[in-house]
Amino acid sequence: MSDDAEELVFETELDAPPEKVWRAIATPELREAWLGEPEAGPAEVVRAEPPGRLDLAWPTREGDSVVSFEIEVTEAGSLLTITHRALAPNVVALAPRRSRAGACGWRMAA
Length: 110
Prior knowledge:
This protein is an alpha+beta fold. Helices cover about 15% and strands about 35% of the residues.
């Protein structure tokens, strides 16, 4: 990745242990229910270090990107940092999605 790659970073504290957060992001069906599917094909694992980090190649119509999930232990459960890096100048990183209920945010389904 180049140093000038575009990126969006989201952080959220979750009332769930890192193992549960890992399961939610590492299991494709759970991750897709939570974040939706990539728009241009399935996500592919680039790096997996359970239960702390998962990097996915995230295809978009404009080109390739990478979504990284980093999980840290907190007193309340976990801190999840999601970083979406656009690898080419014409790639737009993920925009926050609205939940089916219409409110922005993430919910742990696992």
